[in-house]
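Colleagues,

Please find the record for the two-part complex below.
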Amino acid sequence: MNKAARTVRPTRIRLPEELSGDFTGVVIGTFGAALDFAEMQFFRQLPKSAVNRIVLADQHQLALFLGSQPPLRRLNRSYVAAPVRSPHAHHPKYVMLVGPKEGRLFVGSGNLSIGGYAGPGECFTAHEWRADDADGNPSPFGAVRELIEATVTAGWVDAVAQERLRDIFKAAPWVPASGGADSPVVHNQARSLLDQLVDRVGDAKVLEVVAAAPFHDTRADAVKQMVQRLEPSRFRLLVQEGMTRLDVGALGSALSTVHHVEILEASAPQPYSAVLLHAKFVLVRTETADLLLQGSANLSRVALCEYGQNGNIEIGNLLRGAPGEFDGLLESLDLESRSEGLSTFKADDGWSDGDDDAPPAGGPTNVTWAPPTLSGELSSSLAQRIEVRVGERAVVAARTTWETVQGRHHFSLEFSETDAARVDFARHIELIDANDDSWTVYPYHLHSLLRLTASGGRADLLQEAGDLDLRDKELEELVAELDRVLVVDGRSLWRLAHPDRPSSEGDPHSDGPNLSYDDLDWSRLGSLPQLRQYGSAAHRALLAPTELGLILQSLTNRFRVDAGVMTSSGDVIDDSGDLGAEPESENEDELDDTSGSDDEEEAGGRRMAPRQRVRRLWRNFVNRFIRCLADDEFIRSVGSPVIIPSYVVFNHLCRRLRVIDLVDGDFLTEAQTKLWTFMWGDGSKSGYLASLGPEELAVARKILSDHDDLPVTLAAVDDAWWHVWDNDLQVSDLRSAWRHFLESSLWEPTPEALQSAAKAAVRCDESVDQLFDDLYSLAAHVEEGELVLSLAACLGTSTVHIREVRDTVMRAGSRSDCTLFRVDGLELTPDLAGRALTLWHQMAPEADYLRLQAENATAVIDLAADDGFFFDRVTGSEASLALGERVVPTWERRLEGLLEAA
Amino acid sequence: MWTEQVYPPRGGQDHLGLGSVVTDRILPSLSPGINVLTPHPRYWSFYAFVVDEFWRRDLPRTNASLRRFLRHKESIFSIAGHLCERAGDEHHATPIGSRRVGPHVQEGLSKYSANFDYMKSNGGGYGLYYATVMQATGVVRLADRELGLPVDTVTPEAGLAVAEAFRASIETTRYWRRFFDKDEVPADVVEELAQHCCLCRLSENAPDRQPLVDVFLHGGHASQSAARRLSLQMMLELSQQTSGAALRQDDFRRLVMYQSAYDPDTDEETATFVPPVHLTSVVRRWRLSQLREMFNWSLNGMWQWLCDWGLDKEGDSIPIPLAEVRAVVDRLALGQLPGVSTRAGAPIAELIAECQALASMTGSLDGRWELWTELTEDHLLGLLQDDQLDMKGRLAALAVMYVMCLSRLADPGLPGEVGVEDWRPVVEGGASRIGMQHALDQLRRDEQLGRTVSEVVWRVLNDQVMAQHERVALAKLPDDTFRFRRDAGRVRFFERPVEFQRNDSRFNSLSTVCAELGWSGFLGDPSHSLTPEGEHIRLHGDLDHG
């Protein structure tokens, strides 16, 4: 290849990969907002520290997007997407990342979308500022700030977004209030972009203007004014056949006064041919300098020539350089002169970029959720009436207040606890105004948003603790978040006590540091928010804004959906369950070709799916709490304020982990059995609950009740029983825990709890009868060999002398197969036989034929025939035999009582 | 500065995220432990034997050490499989690594290296394919540092039994006696080994056959082994009923779905399958797995149709207004399909009723689903695969296939009739992976609202094809697998491959297991009669114990 002939294309920008840095917030200005892309991809590439995330989007485009998509998962919970209600389009395109000591700003042409940020047809200019760079110029950031504050001052942005924006700039005090006169970034809130361009050109003679944009105004006003004011000798216009929207006649007229006009067919070079060039720029060449206006403004009057309320909201880079300095922009393109000009040009005639004026969207604004209150605003032209729907269900406010200020009705709706939970859980709600117009609204979740910035971590994930419906990577992050927020064991306390010292948390195989609980400064620990939040667990209002409250609410809400008490918002846009995971090849060789990855190394040559790692992390996390239940000193040290909420959390979590099959069922059964035994006791000791004093107990019961612990446990016991049954595992521990549960006087099952549990239990098919049958069969279950063991104890002999055999016997005059027990080496007496058979009946009430056979005698109870006898083989005598009175165990009485109540 | 295309275009697979519903949810519950890549029972005993030998040696208890040891033995095992004197067209037992080992043995070497790089995977075929299913069937326990197990081991019961049985299979060979730990093994020694350990020799009552039979019938959790037994029993029943017919995967699919198979060249029926009562439940679930495959095909087909249509219209150069797509749907050419008289503007209820009539649906999930009626899913599939339809006809066929699949499930009493477990394949997928139940609920709603056929097809195309593809492609980022993307009321297409296929049905694996365990001939051969043991399992579902 001839090197000299090769064109060297300028480097291109890879915006999504340029986001790392010490940033605390990000503001995105955009026309259209593909929030699914933002949630599922773009935000994941932001640094974790950038927790204050704000999208300012055009109101119509945002409404269009939200109306055409399934509900979003995190909108206005972990980030804000606020409509900008300007009279014309909100059309700027920028991404501004700021932190206390640095900032990065991209100003250009791309909207928040895959094509806008990661496609090849856009232009962006990057601006950076660092505290340690003495030559740094913060003015571009100031220009963006000025633009944002102008929209805020105009009242076009919701109050919550305003607050969040203030926080952004509070965290970056170095950002000036405006860009100043010479800023390389300009906006059009005080002056039009064309005015500013003309000013910077000054008196210099314009040799050439090169302009490109996918959209022109139909009258070619923008080009006309540009020509009139800059008076270029030459005008080169870049177009794309079939893609650029322009009016050929109007444009021809606008350019008629220019001496030399050249129309260039532009395309991106290979491999990007056929890409729509969405970039917009005006390059002005003078004898001494080149000026480039490049940004969001199309070649339309409303974008380029107007300002303030009369124009779109636009932003651009206005750069000055030596002649030829910006030629890289053109060198990146393939340009071909259209010899016939525009005469044969086929314009795009229908694709709107939204430059056109559009009527205001209307509807409620500023809708904010601060449990249990939903507030917002409506136009005062409407009557003061608003209805709220969550899914198919109307939720009615317990208290409503209205106030009319400056032409707006301000409403405030306070909901009952149950309805508040519904609103809280819903991805979006529907508001119906007095005109019966219905509006889908994503309220700003005030507590969640505040918590997010307060924690600096991924507190947004805590809201997903109930569903656990996340990508593997996020499931990993969620475990880390739960570990950060919850007091799980001594390791958690150690970390709280020594926040600046590394703990062994990174090593999942460590048992943690050696910790003496008495050495801890409990008064200091108690003042930390991580422990203080536990003290609020019994007070809903105090608990709600805490991270613990968020976890508990998420878990409880999820259960209530399973139990049919609440409805979910239906499908959401997400990629949970690894929707994007490529299926494993079904071809041996193909699979081998893709092997040998790091994951495989880690797993000993075995293909280890990321999910395996996640499974292990979750299992270890649960295991830490289960293990700490045996740590009496920990239990005593932290006391019931920590133990009870933690128990509730793990009881919910274990159930959910089984439902979604994230953790091995055997492990969960064992963990749950230990959890329940700890709380409710077993044969050898009473449970934790019974150890509490009356006041503590009352608080504990309230916390358990507030978070549906009883129905959760019933459903979880049923799920565990099915697992044990399916897999032929040992039942005795689970049965024992369940019986003690039933026998505990502290446990007060209600019919409602049974109904909820029946709906939530995976295998009950929503049937209370089925649930009852399951739970009864578990409590009554007799393990193989257990009956023999009990009979041996009753008869005072060893199990080796008792054999269970199938035999054919005469019953009611006919032969019948039955099970009987042969007892060797024992002299059976009527009394002994009666006790043994009574015990048998007690343990296996379904058996209707009971027979013991010893060398000296046979004892039979035939319940079907209502007959019983003791036959002495030695004497040949026969005596009647009856069962002793059956002692109904407590658990059975409790269960039957429950069924009656249900 | 111009922007770069950040996410590299990739081929990708499963562009609607539907495939895993069958492969990861439905099929594993039907044949746990036997998947498309684990068809040879003898690998269970061979790997168990190698792992056991590893533990008998004073070797570092690390994964790396086990890997080295395992590859050293498996390379010779694989070479031996290729040197089996039966090797040839009739030799069904191709060992792992044949892509590299095949040419290697063609060289006719006098000795073979145990360090031959027979496959890429560090963990050999064990790590790549078999380890997890061997754990699931109770033969090995995988390393778990939490449990203090640094490296995989055989289980004390089943694992040790099959390991020892394999050892007994080769105990007389020179390889075992003199060359097991050697790096070079003479060719004649490997050839001798082949006569004892080849995968195909298991059925000749090799010492490890019986323990392996026990593993396949009873290994792992009770519910899983019960499910596996039922599917194996079904395969043996199928084998018995189709004796004389060489079955292929497509035949299997038709036999479980329609109880009938045919020669596509002559349209003559080649086999039938009438499941006995005791297999009703398992056959029902296999049938639903294949119905799900048809359902997936209809959606994937619509996705492919849209891509083809868009590229045909040069939608990769200039985005096409969605209204144009809608216009095509409004002109749905249902008339191109045999027997279909419903028109695009008719209520969807008419098409549902017509589908039920054309396919002679009985409303039941059991019994015969007529294959020889005017129109079935299979017939539509044939029309689509044979390119017998134009662009409009293709969309119509796919839409009818979609409606027909759901019409099979239309009776609201079915879930209660068949029970939760048997209905599960219908529910699997939920909303995110378009479960049939989810689709059925929406279709019922459409029916109640009196929506027209074209309105319903547009909804499906919009929500379950376009939005679903975008959702899946978004989730696949940073690999760009978009084939189209909607933006501002238009849809832009990208020229990339749009092939798709049905998932493997596991027919070959199940058939191989039955043959290599000595229960039946290969179902792919015309003669696949059952052995007495196979016949016993066919009749009783298990072997007698005790």
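The first helix of chain B runs from residue 19 to 30.

Comments are welcome before we finalize the supplementary table.
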